[in-house]
Structure to design on (304 residues):
């Protein structure tokens, strides 16, 4: 069976967009449940400015609480201040993040696209020298909330620059879930003429319900890493209209039914999705997760 790697981003991308920050014990519990469900790559928080994203404050405390767990812990780092904070923890991987749109880059990290690359160059180098791995993000794979359609050549340029600087992988973000499956496939085909599939991941927000079919198509292009979020939590505080990431449960259903191996337990995912939705005071709406949860209740006569 072909293996596919899912990177769970709910504890970062999901929670960063909640109007009420969750406390550290609840953030920790979420990550522990996800680790127990089988995740080996988990975004646990961000070392960004707490003035900009208060929901991600105290990421240091989250990491301290996870010190007895072995997995690839990932946290966002926007600059050298963020890297300093990261180096004082036991984080394994930092994720630097930029965009294929000038306006998005400016609103998200307060610099131009070119400045972002210049800023990240020493951050990546120092991180690597200190034994950390570095992942990269390029937002606005298809469209920017401020500028509309983006130019695929800008996506290629930014992704190539991050790989060149030492990122082991670049995750391509359809930040506002604009692309259809065919559009994302077309962009990937162009990108794959100069970038290796092994070094690319897809990070799709499911704003318009297109993400699962886009992932299905991208499997045929040998993309094997996808960012997903439990219960479809998520968004981006600097991208109005960026609703949740594609739900982990929906992607696991797609993959496992089609013969790919994820190493994840749907029972535990559905339980966790249901639980975190309750914590956030919202209905559980990841479709495959909810169906699984309801079926388990019917079959066992009690809630899973
Ligand atoms: P800035 O205001 O230009 O920063 O923000 P500055 O360097 O001028 O510093 C201003 C103050 O912030 C200073 O403090 C710094 O020390 C402090 P003061 O002297 O005034 O007391 N500061 C920090 N504090 C803690 N940690 C730091 C840090 N840096 C500066 N790292 C900055 C620039 C990059 C910091 C800011 O724009 C920022 O934090 N942006 C992050 C925004 C963010 O997290 N966005 C969401 C994540 S991206 C996303 O969701 C998209 C993605 O999911 C992919 C997709 O969907 O497409 C990844
Ligand atoms: Mg995102």
């Amino acid at each position: 069976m072909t293996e596919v790697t899912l990177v769970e981003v709910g504890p970062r991308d999901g929670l960063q967009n909640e109007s009420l920050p969750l406390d550290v014990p609840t953030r920790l519990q979420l990550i522990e449940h996800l680790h127990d469900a089988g995740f080996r790559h988990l975004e646990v928080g961000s070392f960004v400015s707490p003035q900009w994203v208060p929901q991600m404050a105290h990421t240091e405390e989250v990491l301290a609480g996870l010190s007895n767990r072995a997995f690839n812990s990932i946290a966002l780092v926007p600059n050298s201040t963020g890297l300093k904070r990261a180096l004082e923890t036991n984080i394994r991987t930092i994720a630097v993040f930029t965009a294929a749109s000038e306006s998005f880059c400016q609103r998200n990290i307060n610099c131009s696209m070119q400045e972002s690359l210049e800023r990240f160059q020493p951050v990546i180098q120092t991180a690597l020298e200190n034994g950390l791995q570095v992942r990269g993000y390029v937002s606005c794979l298809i469209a920017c909330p401020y500028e509309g359609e983006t130019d695929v050549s800008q996506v290629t340029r930014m992704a190539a620059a991050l790989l060149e600087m030492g990122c082991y992988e670049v995750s391509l973000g359809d930040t506002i879930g604009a692309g259809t499956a065919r559009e994302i496939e077309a962009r990937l085909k162009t990108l794959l003429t100069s970038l290796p599939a092994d070094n690319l991941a897809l990070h799709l927000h499911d704003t318009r319900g297109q993400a699962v079919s886009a992932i299905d198509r991208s499997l045929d292009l040998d993309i094997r890493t996808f960012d997903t979020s439990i219960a479809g939590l998520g968004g981006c505080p600097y991208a109005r209209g960026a609703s949740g990431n594609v739900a982990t449960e929906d992607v696991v259903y797609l993959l496992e039914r089609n013969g790919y191996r994820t190493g994840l337990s749907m029972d535990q995912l559905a339980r966790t999705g249901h639980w975190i939705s309750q914590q956030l005071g919202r209905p559980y709406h990841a479709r495959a997760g909810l169906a699984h949860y309801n079926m388990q209740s019917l079959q066992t006569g009690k809630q899973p």
Q: What stands out?
A: Residues 5-300 form a domain with the TIM Barrel fold (CATH 3.20.20.70). The CA atoms of residues 28 and 62 lie 6 Å apart. Residues 13, 173, 175, 203, 205, 236, 245 surround magnesium ion (ligand 2) (CB under 6 Å). The chain is about 45% helix and 15% strand.
